[in-house]
Amino acid sequence: MKLIVAEMACLYLLVVGVAFATVGGGDVAIKSKKGEVVFSHDNHVGMGLECTKCHDGLFTTSAQHKKVTMKQMQQGKSCGACHNGKTAFSVKGDCKNCHK
């Protein structure tokens, strides 16, 4: 009987844990001279991107992340790895796509 109760408790915790699990890390605000850029995890995850597409390869934590220039992004660093005009809109051109 104790085994059944223990199994039910574990199953309950598993189901509740999955139900309340969230994907994404919220919005990340990045200050720049051209205007703040707000990166939305929800938008990117909502398009079907897996977290591992960017983490831990391109980005680690905000504390470990190094600033990059627009020129470096245009060469495929940081956001420019996907925002190259092929995979996603390019970092070149319309600044207002990102900078607000």
Q: Count the DSSP helices.
A: 3
Strand percentage: 5-15%
Using only C-alpha atoms, the radius of gyration works out to 19 Å
User: Which CATH architecture would you pick?
Assistant: Alpha-Beta Complex
- The first-level CATH class is given as Alpha Beta
- Oligomeric status of the shown chains? single chain
The rough form would be described as: globular
The class by helix and strand makeup works out as alpha+beta
Q: Looking across the biggest beta sheet, what order are the strands in?
A: 1-2
Distance between the termini: 61 Å
User: Main beta sheet: strand number and arrangement?
Assistant: 2 strands, antiparallel
How many distinct beta strands? 2
Order of helices and strands: HEEHH
CATH topology annotation: Cytochrome C3
Uncertain parts: 9-21
CATH superfamily: Cytochrome C3
The pLDDT mean sits at 78
Question: Which percent range fits the helix content?
Answer: 25-40%
Number of structural units classed as domains? 1
Overview of this structure, please?
- With 100 residues, the protein is an alpha+beta fold.
- The protein has one domain (20-97): Cytochrome C3 (Alpha-Beta Complex).
- Helices cover 30% and strands 8% of the residues.
- A two-stranded antiparallel ribbon has the order 1-2.
- Mean pLDDT is 78; it is low at 9-21.
